Every structure is written in structure tokens, then in C-alpha cells.
Amino acid sequence: MALGTDDDLSQRLFDALVADYPDHEVGTRPVHTIGIGARGYFTPSNAAPKYCVAEQFAGPSVPVTIRFSNGSGSPVEHDDALDVRGMAAKFHLASGGKADLIMITLPVFFARDPDEFLGFARAGRPAFDPLPGLWQRVMDMLRLRPDPTRPDPKNPYDGAAGVLQYANLHASARPGTVSALLLVTPTSYARATYHALHSFRMTSPDGIVRFVRLSWEPVAGVRPIDPTVKVPEDYLRCELPERLQREPARFVLRMDVAGQGDAVNDPTQIWDTTRLRVVLGELLVTEVLADQTRDCEKLSFNPTRVVPGLECSDDPILTARGKAYEYSCWLRGGSGCPIGGEWR
Amino acid sequence: MVRDETPNLADVQGNILRGYRKHLVRHLVLTVLDRRAVGNWLLDVTGRDLTAHQVTNAEPWDEKPSTCLNVAVTPQGLAALGIARSAIETFPTEFVAGMASRATKIGDVGESAPENWKPEWRSPERLHLVVTVHADTEVDREALSREVLAVGGGQAFAVLASLDGAGFPGGKVHFGYRDSIAQPRFIGAREALDRPDRQPLVEIGAALLGYLTPIEDVIFDVPKPEVLGLNGSFNAFRVLEQRVVAFEEFLTDSAETILASPLADQVLPAGIERTWDPPMSRLDAMRELVAAKVLGRWRNGVSVQMSPHTPTPKPPVSEEQLNDFAYREDTDGARCPMGSHVRRCNPRDARIVQRSTNHARRIVRRGIPYGPIYDAAQPDLPDAPERVERGLLGSFIGASLLVQFESILYDWMNLGLLDPRITGTNDVLVGNNDPAFSCFALPVGETTIELRGFSRFTVTRGGAYLFLPSLSAIKHLGQSAA
Amino acid sequence: MRWTKLHATMMVERFLIWYWKRRAPVATPQWGWKTSLADNVQQQMNLIMPLADTTGVGKAKAVQMVAANIDELFTGLNNIGTVHSARFDLIGEYLCIITVYDGDHEVYIRDFISVFGSVFDAMIKIVADPPPWPCELYSAEFVKWIGDHEGFQVPYNLTQMFPDEKNLENLSRDLVLLLADNPYVQIGRFSGYPALSTAQIRLAAGIEW
Predict the structure, then answer these.
(1) Candidates C36, C167, C168; nearest CB to A178
(2) Is the terminal CB of chain C with fewer CB neighbours within 10 Å at N or C?
(3) What is the ipTM of this complex?
(4) In chain B, what residues touch A209 (CB-CB under 8 Å)?
């Protein structure tokens, strides 16, 4: 489907996301607005260079800048609300180049291509959706339905109902939607598993090409908060520096290799746990950045900022994200955009 | 009831235990429209009316008949002929469920998926019988086909499809290989050309229901009533399109890859191609070597196990010796790769993972090409290399579809479970190959050359699980329907 | 009988299940949910067989039956060559065989029959609803019987289970109905070395296959 020029598409995607957050502030990221930056280093495993010629896996260690974030595009911090969390990593390669790896706490995405995503974003626009009354709850019980959940228990305006409706009509959005409905709030950014969603094309030294999906798995384990206990609205932002002062946060970079028949260009498809699983290395997050603005907020992380050896698949969402992120970066005056060139 | 006596060959259909080796074949895929007329015909062709061409049985010939006739039936065909539902349900699950329902298991996915099959194979409720005519001349084939279709005043059958096959000179098939050299050698019933093969003789229960099988103590369940099931067999009938052009390109690409490797002379000693008969260029020779290694025989039928570097060794391999080899000494596949087609589908005495099954899955293969022969000098139009459809009408016959045909396809042809060094790869010729995942491991000395990136060369265009009833069973069907 | 809250809930639920089975039935797929063509190694089987004799003596006999046939079992499992693990569990009044293997399920059972059919025959004698005996002569029925007594494998993601479900909010109900028909369930699986066959692991570890 023709959607106009790429720039036009990026703008439309950007606008669609921003429309879901009425209080979005110009000059900030359209989603994942609230975040905190940290630094660390990544040490590849012995197997990594056998699977991938990309520089970040050649060894020994690579310095990394990490930005943890909440998914919301609102400038008001709500760490305690149910939300997707993000972990963006920028590898500072010895040759001077950069490679980015962007992950979120969902294993799959909601849409297969920009068209579907625009439909989804539109559906997720906040609408009045009050908590069900007693009668509604009784009906749900009779229908053997679970109690409905919502992102922000205090806010009757949210997009959950619209998203559910969209997913009912669009089968491809279902795995992502169900995963989103099952999201939990972690006790720490360092205690959640993050997934890159898209397949990447990995080339080995003997020329074998594999399609892989990557995840950061926390060594400390996943731990959700107790939903009955009240936590401050900035508890994640405060927790991270405290944690890192005690000890570094560790993440294992895990890759799942596509099996025959797997959809490699479709981020809505789940890959089962039965895929070949290789440990590519370990990330140590050592300290929170001193200058958050210069060293983190101003940076542009882009899922398509890749280096030879670990490259993008033909996933249409990945392609569209790359350009949309560049557009957003340009809008807010971030550094590092466009990837590898000047603006025309 | 354990039967270990030899079956009455007069009661068994003729193409199960031995091949007819007729030049022409026609498979008539039929719907039963007039049950009575069909029933009467079935009685006629099993001895009631000798003026009708009889169903050919397995008795040895003094003089080969000019035409042969066989009848196969689907579960829907059994029902159409009046067999009770309760009896049909005593047939094996996979037969009743049908080939299309087993697609994922046997690798009929993607292009080969049942949704893409030819129409006659996609309407099982109308697919009742496959009547096969074997002849040596067009005239004879036509005459017998007409006789069959004239049953019931020409109204007894609807013809869903009429599939013609014709053998090529030298017993070759479309990929250029000589086919059907090795078949199971049955205890008590052997083909006329009985080549020694260093394998145990095969219990007749591998082919016929009701007898001891190669699996100790096991007899495959005989469908009820016994007159219907005994001495019968099953046929996984498949219409297999063969992508000859793509295969030949694969041979060229692979040959070039190997020739560019420092291991080339280990694969094919330098200059040996000049001793071949006929001699050929190094590139052509390497192509032939790749063809030989992926199948397990040179295209002229000589086994790579016997002769790994030349299709025409000296002294030459005689007709009788073509099967006289075994894999036990070839532990690493240096002669015959573990991933080769013949070694995958019949591992003989090779060391395999499923140690107890070396001889448990022996299967009878009957096949004949369809479509025009590929002539490299006059290739099909360059912009649509596979514009002309050509392939194999294949019959894979055995007493248990599950234990034999399906098992071979599921975990030997595809997946390669029988040897960990090829596990995760599929057979080059018939496997469910995707260029992103395909791989053929060619052992060379201490190392392996991996040929990758090839697509699927054999695409399923249709098929069905058929029951080949004994002649008594055909009589029973006739009585049931008439 | 005292009417506790639990009893009341169970009664209501039983009624609701009966109602919804008629209104919006859910079918159990024959093959379970294979998520990918590549799911052909490390397959799972959870065979759950009700004992005929559930007394202490009966259970002891079951345990002894397994112990008495250990040679046959282990030799058979070794010779099948594709078995990652197998164990016999006595759970309540059920004798369970829980195993991880490579390749096709039906072929696996057939291989079982051929290498330790007599153990199965001994086992058949102590279960409550046995299939025809001996299994070597009734292999098709035996395979079917095993299928009927197997734990049902539930994938992690509920949407894979019910692709025809039009309303996501009904997934929970669909699951309730499915479980009403399949009391024994395996929920997901984890492997320390996925996508590898037994022989591949043995080869890599240098202990030969």
C-alpha cells in the first residue's frame, strides 16, 4: 500500500503516537519520554564471534551507554503505572562506530507493517472506559471472564478498550495485545527481561546467515512489584542509582535462532522457547550517568543503527522505525541523526 | 492370528511384491457414480467374467502379459462401495484421516501444501478409486483404459483425473538418475532380477497385512473384516513435480563452489575425469559428482559406496552387483554421505541413532515419470524456467503408512534424525528445503564442505493414501457394492 | 454435606461449563499445537495412566513392575536413541511416564512397542482401562490409547490456542472449557539446550551416540 514518501510516513507515525498522549511535550521523545541513562560494558561470550562477525562480538569488552525508560509519551512520570519498559543500548565500538540495540519488555509487537500500526495507534487513543460496576463484574463472572486490568487504576481514560477491540478484529495484533495485558510492573529496571522484537540478520565468519531475535535477560531475575503496595511515582528512577551503587546490574544477551518456517519479517509472531538459544555475552551496568542530558537525553538510539554482521531483516516495522526515529531525533534536536550521513 | 506362511500370491495384487516394468502407465482417479455397476465390475475382474481384463495378481509369469490392471481405494471409496463406517474405522488412523491431513508431518508445506494441490486431490469426498493401467504401447493403454471407463455403460465412474506416465530410456527419471534399482527382497516372493544387497531378506508383513513384519513380534493391525484387510497393502500415491532446471543449476553452483575450494582435489582427484567413460571436463565431472553424492548413486546407477570417484570404474560394476554394497565401513560418509538420498531412506547396516530400526522401515517404491523429458539443449523459456511441469507419479507401498512412508519422510528424509551430523537438514532431492536453511554436508577427509542455499526441488502437486486390497477383498467390495 | 463456599463455587462453575460448552464449544486439536516446523526435537510426552488397584499393595506392585523391568527399559530407551529423558512417576493413583524424545510421536510409541513391548504388556495389566493386549499385535489401538491418556500440551501464548476466537476477553473461558475436557495438562516447557537432538548432544559431549 502506498503511504506517500518515507518522510511523510515517519511524520504520520510520529503524530499517531503523540496523539495517544494528549499532554505530550514538544522536543521530547514521542514515546519512552521518561528515562534514565547509565553506562556499562558488554563482554561477548566465546561463542559469539563464531556466530557473528559484527564488531561488538569480537571481544574483549565494549563500553555501552544504556537508557532505561517507561513506554509512555506523557511528560508526567508514573513509574508505578502499568507500562512497557524500554532498554536502549549504544555500543561504542573500538573502530569509533556505534551500534544500537533497542529492546522493550514485550516479546512481540502489535502490527506487521506501518499501516497496521497506524490503525493500532488510532485504536489506542484514550477513551472513557470506567471500571466495571458490580453488575458488569457479575456478568463477567458468568461469562467465565477474568477481571479486566488497566494501565492506570486511577485514570478512567485510557486506550485499553480500544486496543482490545482492535485486536479482536486483527488477528496479527493478538499475541502482542495479550502480552501487553499480562505486563507487570518491575521492582527495578534491572529486574525485567527486554526483547528486541525484530529479527536481525546475523552473519558468521564462515558466511552462514541466520535470522535471530535478541533479548536481555536480567541475572538478578524478573521481579514484579506487589500491586497492592503503593510505590512513589518516581521509584524506578530512584531505585537504579541506589542499586548500582551496591553492585552492577547484569544482563545476559540471549539470542534465539529462527527455525525453518518461522516468520522472520513479522514482529507479531511468537517464537517458541524451543528455538536454538545461544548466549552471546554479558552486560554489566555499572553506574548512572552524571550528565543525563548531554550523555543520554540528547542521544539518538535507533533500532536500525547496525554494523556489518548483525544487520536488519526486511521487517517492515523495523524499517519504518528506523526512519521514524530519525525524524523524531531531528525534531527534538538530538545528536547522531541521520545514521551515517548528513540531512539532505 | 500370526501367519508366517507365504501368502497365496494369486490373492495379492501384482505390483506390490514386484514391479511390472511396463513402459506406460495411466492412473485413473475416479468417483463411483453407479455403485452397482462398479460392484459388478469388481466381481468381473476378480474371476467372475474372464472376458473382462482381470486384476493382475502377484503370481510369477511364464509370459508377461501385455497389459496389467490394479485397483486402489480410499476410505471414501470404501464407503461409496457400501463398507460400513465401523469397518472403515478399523483401518489405520492415518489412512482414514487422509494424506492431506498429515501434511505438516510429511513436509507438504509451503508450495507443497494441500491447498496448492491439483483439484482432483483436494476433494477427498469424491476421490474413491485409483485404477491403474500398465501397458507397453499407447494402443494397449488406451484400449484398457476405455474398457474400464466403459463400465456401467460409461456411467459408472466420473473421471477426476487421468494421469499418464511414460518411462524413459534406461529406466531414468527426470533428475537424470536411473531409478528403482533397489527394492526389498521379500522372503518367499522375489523379483525376477534379484540382486544381492547384503541386507536381511524382508518379512512379507512389511508389504502385506497379516504377516510378521521386520519388527520382531510385531504384526500390523489387519482391518476388519479379515477378508477385507488380509493380504492388502497401502500406497502413498504422490504426484511429485520435479524442478529439473533448478536442480541442474544447483549442480553447477555446487560444482563451482567445490572447485573454488582447496579441497577440490580431495573431493575428486585431479584428472580422474579423463578416465571416465565418456570423459568430460572437470566442471562437468564435478557436477556429476555432486549429483552422485546427493543421491548416493551416480546417474548411471553405480553406487558411490562402491565407486566414490568414477561412475565407470574398472572393472565395471555389473547389473547384478548394483546393490552389492553396505555402509558399515563408511562411518563418516566419505564415500556415501550420511545425508544422501539412498542412505537416508534405507540406511542398510549403517550406524544410525535409532539403532533398532535399520530394517524396520523397508518400503516398496514404484514410480514413473510424467511430463516431457528435459533437454538441456532446448531448455524451457528462459524467463520461466519451470514453465513445463514434469515429475514423478510415485507409489510408496507398504503395510503401514505410518511406520514406513511417514516415518521415513518425517525423521529421515526431513530432519535427518538418523545421524547427528546431518540432523536439522533435509534431503536435497525431496526434502522440504528453504534456501535460508538448506544444507548438504559433503564429508571430505577430516572435514566437511557444506552446500547451502538450495530450494526445494520436489514439490507435491497432489496425492492420496490408497488401500490396495487383495483379490478376495476386491471380491468382497464387489459383493458389498453390487 | 456442609455447603461451603467452595462447594457452591464448584456447582456454579460446573453449570457454567455445561452451559458454555453448548453455547461456544472449543475443540481440542488432534496434534496439540506445534508452533513451528522446527519443533521436531525434544518433544514431550506425559502419559498418565489410572491404576486398577489403588491400594497400598497395588501401588507397590506398580513400583515393583517398573523395577523388575529396568534392564529391558533402559536397553530399549538406549536403542531407540532419541530419548532425552524418561521417568516413571507414581502420582496419587496414577502411574505416569514422562519423557522427552526426538521425532514423531506415533513413531516413538511404535519404537517403544518394538523394543520393550513386554514392559508395556506388564503395564497394561495394572491399569484401570487397558487397551487390547499384547501391544505388538494391537499397536494401532495402543497408540490411540496412549493418545487418550496423554497430558495435553498448552502453549504459553493463549492466542495460539484459539485462533478462531473472535473476542480476546473470551480466552479465559475457552481455556476453562478446554481444561474441562483435558484434565491432565502440561503448561509450556523449558530446555537447557533447545533445538538439539539427543544424538547431537551426545556427539558434542564426546560420549558417542
Answers:
(1) C168
(2) N
(3) 0.90
(4) 436
